[in-house]
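Protein: Histidine ammonia-lyase
Species: Neobacillus ginsengisoli
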Amino acid sequence: MGEPFPEVVAKAMVLLRANALLKGFSGIRPLVIERLLDLVNKDIIPVIPQQGSLGASGDLAPLSHLALVLIGEGEVFYKGNRVSSLEAFQKEGIFPVTLQAKEGLALINGTQAMTAMGVVGYLEAEQLAYQSELISSMTIEGLNGIIDAFAEEVHNARGYKQQIDTAARIRGYLSDSLLTTMQGELRVQDAYSLRCIPQVHGATWQALDYVKEKLEIEMNAATDNPLIFDDGEKVISGGNFHGQPIAYAMDFMKIAVAEMANISERRIERLINPQLNDLPPFLSPEQGLQSGAMIMQYVAASLVSENKTLAHPASVDSIPSSANQEDHVSMGTIASRHAHQIIQNTRRVLAIEMICAMQAVEYRGVKKMASQTKRFYDMGRLIVPSIKKDRIFSKDIENAAEYLKTVDLTKVLQQLDNIK
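Structure follows.
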């Protein structure tokens, strides 16, 4: 039901299903696994609806659409088109599989839909977490933030590795900035959305580390049922298909990424609100005539509010199915889908913060920026020009979000170093 999974997720689903079957506990011929790998190698991507899985008894509905492709039914994305699987097979010289005993069940019983969506979501969330530190560093400069709060001894005193690491990266980004201040220079302390970046972003990293651990286990797990042991002599009906571990992990990731957007939106407010800073109201080039970034903050607030709804844990819900035999289910696939949407929303919030922070540092003096944030600013200005008058800012937000989705900031900084 509903829209199909993104192609990258569907392709990951095929690969993960093959990997699970390669564990040797599923009672399936090598031919079936080879055909799954043909799909990956020939870039034949099953069309798999996102909705319809309860996250227990495996992702039965989504994985059934994967299995349909192997037997020459169903649809695939092939060479930019949505076609029947049989058409793609004929063009590639591939023959459909005639399934034998246990093989159909082995293909559709597992957690690969929620896991594939979770892996793609995790990789995007990890990238966003790094980007949020660089973007927030530029915001600190735009607000003449107090650098003392990021001192190493402060974070060592608490002891969380992720918090310590976040503070260290921000200190590194801002090490030669002339726009940061010391406590007591302009004010005694900053608001929490600046001062507590290591504590909040660090906690997000803690959640992401947990998610990564669970996904790595699940990616390499045998999750169908029944499982075959002792060279086929022992067949055990168990419950490895139950998605509860991934459901919890996805719900945890939802909350952690949503909070990354939440604190970002508060920094956006501090950048544009004249009652909270000494910058032009709404960063407007013409106070009273041009709206500046006012509506962009509206958009960020809307996305953050939507995230709060999506962050409600899916794993606390369960509906019995299969004549009440399957009387507890995980809803892990719903959790992974909601996590993916939260990540997309959060990227747009961070894109808005990036736009506002770039505008703020222009008012402060770009030449006073730290070398690292200045390089990021220079690249950002190739994507989003300075605000000289009101324009269609939705295009800027989408361009900045797409940039954040595709860019490897480490490589960008290295490339700019080489250029200079």
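Remarks: DSSP finds 16 helices and five strands in the chain.
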